[in-house]
Automatic annotation (TrEMBL), chain B:
Name under which the protein is recorded: tRNA (Adenosine(37)-N6)-threonylcarbamoyltransferase complex dimerization subunit type 1 TsaB
EC number, UniProt record: 2.3.1.234
GO biological process: tRNA threonylcarbamoyladenosine modification
The entry's keywords: Acyltransferase, Transferase
MF-aspect GO terms: tRNA N(6)-L-threonylcarbamoyladenine synthase activity
Organism domain of life: Bacteria
InterPro entries for the chain: ATPase_NBD, Gcp-like_dom, T6A_TsaB
Record-linked Pfam families: TsaD
Enzyme class: transferase
Segments forming domain Gcp-like: 23-229
Any one annotated GO CC term: cytosol
């Protein structure tokens, strides 16, 4: 097909955006997030105020499989998607008529899961002639902080979850520079694997965190600092060291206190995460340190980061847990920056499982 | 009443706009599988070409499976979301029946099939019933082709059996070996689904359409992990 004049949809979107900008009225963005196992929809005002944030969790379904099964997750997303969106509007006391744009996670994540949210967002955008915004999932996690406190630049964000471990530098809204990321497992993944070795239930993170409080970090475990100037992470060596320690002990007929092992593992993970974050904050003169992602719920990590940020005299922002795990309010918040700049996606927006940030 | 119809359940992408007694536009391609990228642009273009604003639609029809899991989901998620956003009825039509409609008028058993790997097919058996729609003779299912062919022979009672679908060529020799001359094969132009059929079938069902929320794909089988889990847990409970 040859290039054509703008479609009616494109015209409608352009006019709607123009009219709203001129009106100077508040901006209501509908966020949609389906990158993993949570079907979520939210309404956020001006990128700052959460009017609703509905999360249809599938955690109970995936628990029995010992991890997220992509096909199962994708199936649940299709079943839940319009219900979840409707619920978000209802709880916000709004209708689609009030919505100025639809922001959707288009990567990274599980491709089959992403595609459901992207298809739904494009469909609603098209049906109602509302602008469509594609949002990077990690950008969403970072912008969860803006729902708590205004961002001050430059800032350093540590994003840790079952799927990611990233250290990101931001000098302005919508500008991301990845300082470091994991070279193997995500931090949350390492937690799950170690938890399995300790015969703790899935997801393992919260169980290790709890168990670690009952023990002392007296089992010697490595710290993966990597090259001296590197902000990258690596957790697979640590995970192997834990497994070896357990294996060797059982060979010798000794027992290791699981609480001590959990404390030692947690100590190693949090020390590396926190020290690299602090070093980055120092190097780039950060005015704020942000902690985001599901692992932000980890008390050991929060407390350590809190202590070090206080010692460094840099402000630390940690959103409440409901905004740390995957949710659509953070996607709407990140999408608001694109809305202000008029950066909209076309109807050919696709789910991109390995989408790079920036 | 104007209906938008969509089929992305296999390699074919088909979109149509239909009214009672008239197909206004239809686009069907059988080339690329990037339905996620192409579907909405195609819908947008077809509505523009038929001078249809989304609010002017009276309903949506969609192929709800079986087929490629991802393909089916893209179609269903799109259809139910458009329907929900415009408060329209949405009708899910069997992806197999959509193909069977190509053979309306054939005197015998009409058997659309999609390959489902490991010797299995998604299939059903239909017969011409008047000139509106085919009627179901054997309900759609996932089945080993080697089990399906004897069932079809029994059902056909000596009448010819017409096989339809893009994947028939993968199994043509097996089918011919079992059914001999009783097996017929459609020309290539009858093998791909056409959204126009889905649109017209949906038009007939619009009065009975449920809520957009309730529309879900018809996969005909559980996700592998779910099937394994069920098998293990049933074994476990039987042992106890
Ligand atoms: Zn996440």
């Amino acid at each position: 097909m040859n290039r054509r004049e703008p479609s009616r949809y494109e015209e409608r979107v352009r006019q709607a955006y123009q009219a709203h900008k001129e009106s100077g009225e508040p901006t209501y963005i509908l966020g949609i997030e389906t990158s993993c196992d949570e079907t979520s929809a939210a309404v956020v005002q001006d990128g700052r105020v959460v009017l609703s944030n509905v999360i249809a969790s599938q955690a109970d379904i995936h628990k029995r499989f010992g991890g997220v099964v992509p096909e199962v997750a994708s199936r649940r997303h299709v079943e839940n998607i319009t219900l979840t969106i409707e619920e978000a509007l209802t709880r916000a006391g709004r209708t689609l008529d009030d919505i100025h744009a639809i922001a959707v996670t288009y990567g990274p994540g599980l491709v089959g899961a992403l595609l459901v949210g992207v298809a739904a967002a494009k469909a609603v955008s098209f049906a109602r002639g509302i602008p469509l915004i594609g949002v990077h999932h990690i950008a969403g996690h970072i912008y969860a902080n803006r729902l708590v406190e205004e961002m001050r630049f430059p800032l350093v964000a540590l994003v840790v979850s079952g799927g990611h471990t990233e250290l990101v530098l931001m000098k302005a809204h919508g500008e991301y520079e990845i300082l470091g990321e994991t070279r193997d497992d995500a931090a949350g993944e390492a937690y799950d694997k170690v938890a399995r070795a300790l015969k703790l239930p899935y997801p393992g993170g919260p169980h290790i965190d709890r168990l670690a409080r009952e023990g002392e970090p007296r089992v010697p475990l490595p710290r993966a600092w990597l090259e001296p100037d590197s902000y990258d992470f690596s957790f697979s060596g640590l995970k192997s060291a834990v497994l070896n320690t357990l294996h060797n002990a059982s060979q010798r007929g000794e027992t290791i206190d699981p609480a001590d092992l959990a404390a030692s593992f947690q100590d190693s993970v949090t020390e590396v995460l926190v020290e690299k974050t602090i070093r980055a904050a120092r190097e780039y003169g950060a005015r704020q340190v942000l902690l985001a992602g599901g692992v932000a719920a980890n008390r050991g990590l929060r407390e350590r980061l809190q202590q070090r940020c206080e010692a460094e005299g840099v402000a630390l922002v940690i959103p409440p847990l409901s905004l740390c795990t995957d949710n659509a309010a953070m996607i709407a918040a990140a999408g608001y920056i694109h809305y202000q700049k008029g950066q909209f996606a076309g109807l050919d927006l696709n789910g991109v499982p390995g989408l790079p940030l920036s | 009443m104007r209906v938008l119809a969509i089929d992305t359940s296999n390699l074919v992408l088909s979109v149509a706009v239909v009214e009672e007694g008239r197909v206004l536009a239809e686009v069907t391609t059988n080339q690329q599988k990037n339905h996620s990228v192409r579907l909405m642009d195609c819908v947008s273009r077809l509505l523009d070409e038929t001078d249809t604003r989304p609010e002017q639609l009276s309903g949506i029809g969609v192929a709800k499976g079986p087929g490629s899991y991802t393909g089916v989901r893209i179609g269903v998620a799109t259809a139910k979301s458009i329907a929900w956003a415009l408060n329209l009825p949405v009708v899910g039509v069997s992806s197999l029946q959509a193909v069977a409609q190509n053979a309306l008028g054939f005197p015998g058993l009409i058997v659309p099939l999609f390959d489902a790997r490991r010797g299995q097919v998604y299939s059903g058996a239909y017969r011409t019933a008047g000139m509106e729609a085919v009627s179901v003779q054997l309900a759609e299912r996932i089945i080993l082709l080697s089990d399906w062919l004897p069932l079809l022979r029994e059902q056909a009672a000596g009448e010819p059996i017409l096989f339809l679908g893009e994947d028939v060529r993968l199994h043509r020799e097996t089918i011919a070996a079992v059914l001999g001359d009783q097996a017929r094969f459609a020309p290539a132009s009858h093998n791909h689904p056409r959204a126009a059929h889905i649109g017209l079938l949906a038009l007939g069902e619009i009065e009975n359409a449920g809520s957009a929320h309730d529309l879900v794909p018809e996969y005909l089988q559980l996700a592998e992990a779910e099937a394994k889990w069920l098998a293990q847990n049933q074994e476990g409970s039987q042992k106890e």
